[in-house]
Amino acid sequence: MSKTDFIDLLKYPFSHRARRRVRDRRKQIKLIMTLVVKNEENIIEQNIRFHHAMGVDGFVVTTHNCTDHTVSILNKLKKEGFVIETIKKTTPDHKHKIWVNEMVYFAKNKMGADWVINADADEFYYSQSLDLKKSIINEMSGKTNVLWVDSLFLFPDDRPDFLNCPYFVVNPFTKFKAEELKIDVDPLFEDFIGSQGCTKVIHKTHGFKSVVDGNHDVYMRNRVKHQSADIRLYHFHIRNYYGWEEKVKRWQKSIFLLPEDQGIHMKNMVRLYEAGKLRKEYDKKYGKKMRDFLIENGVVSRDLSVSDFMRNRGIKC
Question: Which of 21-25, 116-120, 150-154 is predicted least confidently?
Answer without folding.
Answer: 21-25
